Amino acid sequence: MRRAGGLQLLLLLACTSWARSLQIPPEIEQPPTIISTHPVLLLHFLMTLLLSAVKLRATLSHSLSGQKMGSSSLRHRCYAFNKLGTAMSEEIQLISLLSVPNFPKQTFDPIKVKEGEPLVLNCNPPDSMVPRLILWTSTGLEQIPQDKRVSTGIDGNLYFSHTIQNDTMSDYTCVVSFSNIRTIVQKSPMPVVVQSDAAPDSPSPESCCPLVSRRRPNPTVEWIRMGDDLPKGTKYENFGKMLTVASVDESVEGKYMCKAKNSEGEEVHYFDVIIEAPQWVSGPPQNQLYVIGSDVHIRCAVSGKPVPDITWRKNGEIFRDDPGQKKRVLEDTVVLHNASPEDSAVYQCEASNQHGSLLANVNIMVMRVRRGSRGDIVLNCSVFGSPTPSISWARIETSGDIEGERFLVLTNKSLQIISAEKNDSGGFMCVASNSEGKSSITALLDVKDPTRIVTPPQDMQVVSGTAAQLICRAEFDKSLESSFEVTWMKDEEEIPLNFEEKYYLTKEMLQIRSVNLTDQGVYTCIARTSLDRDNASALMTVLDVPDAPVNVLITELQGANNISLSWTPGAENNSPTTEFVVEYEESQWDPGRWKELKKVPGNLATADLILHGHLNYQFRVYGANLVGPGPPSEPTKRHKTPPTAPDRNPENIKIQGHLPHQMEISWDPLLPIEHNGPGLEYRVSYRRQGLGDQWKESLVKRHSFVVRNTSTFVPYEIKIQSRNSHGWGPEPKVITGYSGEDVPTAAPRDVAVEVINTTVLRVSWTPVPPATVRGHLGGYSVHFLKKRSLLTPSRLLDERQSLSFPGKRNHAIVPQLEPFSEYSLTVNVFNKKGNGPKSDPVNFSTPEGVPDQVSILTTSNAQKDSVLLVWGPPPETKGILTGYLLQYHLINESSLEVLESLEKNISAPDTTQWQLQGLKEGSLYRFQLRACTRVGCGPPRAEESHTINPEVPALFNISSYVSDTYAKISWTATLERHDLELYVAYMNNREGIWQISEAVNSSQSFHLLDGLEPGTVYTVRLLTKKLFDNASIYEDVFQTQGEGVTGFQRDTLAHGWLIGTMCAVAVLTLVALIACFVRRNKGGKYSVKEKEDLHPDAESQGMNDDTFCEYSDSEEKPLKGGSLCSLIDNDGTGDSLSLGDYADEAGEFNEDGSFIGEYSQPKHRGSVSEPNGHSLVAQV
């Protein structure tokens, strides 16, 4: 029995059309693949050397062969082949060395250099094609130490940025190692002498300054890429003097700057990095598997300078363009139309220029693939034998028989899979057996998700000149991602996407730049993989402005000055024409300039025009739609009109009176084209209104006229008529104007005021007679003067304000007065010319008002049944302060409801604090304080606070120590409250803004407030909750040191504290030394019993056993730095304060016992330290 040929099957999930290519699975037999090569092989000293130059992979047996590329080039290639194709390696260069590279024999005189000067020792290594390593050593091969000052350059030279005395050496040797040929050569030693600039034995009388060393500081090197960041993977070598980039591609190109600098100056050097060798643009082409009849595309995308030449081979043989056989070579792409199994081969793409070459082997396999209908697939297994073999099917993954309703074995023993699913992918084995033996064949089934467009392009309308974006999002099988592509067609023709100035394409979008009418059409998006494809279409309509009208004709209606213009509209370009615009140009007054004459609706194609006389016209028309105005038509022939009388009179006539006894008349002149003929002038007619006088007339050519010697502000009738040499214009309209104004002459009478409230009053008056206004009435002005505040009646003021009220009126409301003040008020009338005389002054006083809100309200020193409230008086009392109203409410902390409300009247106006008694313990209260006058109380200021729960132990010994820019808040915590979270809040009383710290553990015993302003008053609170609800354990007001404390006081206090502290430290240190000395003389460590006798109290048991005068009885072991003699209990539970807290401090105690003074950090002298702010220890 013979075994049938191999079977490979691929299936697409769902009934879709077949596509072109997919990745070759590694399980399928395929041509050999060269994994790596050695580009250079070395033959030295005329010895025969055989090296393995190629590593390869293939699923079939293979053979190797070599080919010499020329008798003198010593370049070879390696070919690996099997029955499916031939893979080819890159060129392998053989280098034959006839001699060993070496240095010439030389003898060097000593190189002398002054200390501090730079030095370069030249290596000049021998030329060789073999890689080398350059080192600098002594003749004993001891390597020269290198650092930022001394280093080896890439040229092999040894560089000294500056020399020192230790650089003097007689045998600087350059050593070159050729590891590939196992050879080391060295240059003759070079002696170097560094001469010192030593000072003379006895300085000259003129010189008394020491010599300055000439050593130069080591330069630091900085690398910069001009206009961009350094590439990824950048490394600095040779002490920062060499920049290396691991992976080089076009993104590395650019201008680089190396900057070396020290205190003496800096130097820069620029490098232009240009990648000229061939580079893959998006990686080398990949192996592909195609279906018979597909179009095969193999693209070799490379870049380089100059552009690389691309050579194509098939199985190592040159592959040429053959249009007759539908095999095309198009520069960087090979296209095989209607591929057949004979096209299966290894295709080579080789790109090369003068700087190097790239080679890619691409395995292309073209196979037959059986498809099922409606998602079904049939796997055939044709065998023959005698006796007739039996056939069975099994899954390779499970090694068991195939079961399930979707798997059927047909009568011809083929396997049918109904409605194939993705998890059906895998290997299927067909096993044929009879009495003579057994044979099997494997079929590989790969079920893929279908390619489908999920967001198709939509029909759209696009304005010409803008960009259009067509969206096309597709889903596909992720294993086919390398073959997935999206292409576009317009009106069934493929879009030339290489036209980058017009089109921009991504996998999800086609963008068309600067759309025009030629871009209108049906666009089809095609999403394809190597197995299937899907497409969707959309209509793009381009909207553009209308085309220019044509056939513009002139027809006279009633003479040359009355014509009809007609035209033929142009194409509307998908947007209806909304209007036509007729423009004209005349050659006499403004030649060459087109102006709008008339607009007509877009559904008309004619326009009746009335023209001016004595002009030479030509006309044109353009259409407009929603997109915009279109191009104009061609101009008509010239049309000349005869001269006529003016057809209009001047407009916008203005009558002004800048002076009391004259009237200035001005108007807008007629435009030149409105003259209708030569000799234009204006007739000005005027007369007093209502008197029946005759018109006075004047002819003028300018467009203004002044009537003099008029009465002040009287009405006139005026009319202006235009004329030229061919007649008068139409009868003009009569308008009324007034002669010049003057300031009013009368003051308002009967001025009275009505005080509405503490800040607002109503003022009334009798208006002045109209004749006394002597102009257009502007309105009335109210002037009021604050003479004094009734709180300080002896202090006279001069605060003036005024308000203007336009129009004719007899009263006004004056706001923004100040309560409890005395005012004086006057009123005057005004016109455009100015203010009239003021009325007689009226004196009045504003009543007393309620005070402003108190400036500050704080709560502190909360006890179980009382709270201390401290406040500041209101900024403005607005009357005589009579006291304060305190309202306080018991609050339910869970629901925030008011449980009880009480109030307290504080009748003493000078009171600024109040100890409120009779509160419930452990409760939340809201306090509201109002300042009051005889009229009433002002707005409240509110604060909240808790009374203390006696079951919760409180902190004690809370105090503050103050310096000029910082303060220290200290406390002592009981054992029960040793792990309490505290918050310190403080406020600059001038700014009124609270700041709160992060959580502070109570075991820390203190907290520093820094960044304070000198000579400034602050309020500080110690809180148990971060939410600032005024539930403070402690509150204090202090002033930082500054201008408030004289220098003499600070110095005196500081000296006193310093002397006392130093004396205490000296005495305690002496006692500690004596105690340690006595213990040492006893020998050994004291027993636990003795230590318990020394510290019988329970609190002392918490101390470390070896913290009190421990010593080692071994003479080789010195005392530990941490062995201290503790002089004061360090558990933080006592109420004594550390002397270290007062070292170098000066200050004073305020009335409530808190300490106010200058705080400074402890000065460490090695004898006294303050570990936690409460203990003083001495180091012995």
Automatic annotation (TrEMBL):
Which keywords does UniProt give here? Cell adhesion, Disulfide bond, Glycoprotein, Immunoglobulin domain, Membrane, Repeat, Signal, Transmembrane, Transmembrane helix
User: CDD domains in the record, alphabetically?
Assistant: FN3
Q: Which residues form the signal peptide?
A: 1-21
- Major site of localization recorded for this protein: membrane
Give me the ranges of the annotated region Disordered. Answer: 628-651, 1088-1119, 1153-1180
Ig-like domain boundaries: 101-185, 191-269, 278-365, 369-442, 450-541
Cellular-component GO terms for this entry: axon; plasma membrane
Where in the cell does this protein reside? Membrane
Q: Name one Pfam family in it.
A: fn3
SUPFAM superfamilies per the UniProt record, alphabetical: Fibronectin type III, Immunoglobulin
- InterPro entries in alphabetical order: FN3_dom, FN3_sf, Ig-like_dom, Ig-like_dom_sf, Ig-like_fold, Ig_I-set, Ig_sub, Ig_sub2
Report TM segments.
Answer: 1057-1078
Q: Does the keyword Glycoprotein apply?
A: yes
Q: Which GO terms describe its molecular function?
A: cell-cell adhesion mediator activity
Asked if the Swiss-Prot or TrEMBL record annotates the protein with the keyword rRNA-binding, the reply is no
Q: Which residues form the Fibronectin type-III domain?
A: 548-644, 649-742, 747-849, 850-951
Q: Which family does it belong to?
A: Belongs to the immunoglobulin superfamily. L1/neurofascin/NgCAM family.
Name recorded for this polypeptide: Neural cell adhesion molecule L1-like protein
Organism encoding this protein: Mugilogobius chulae
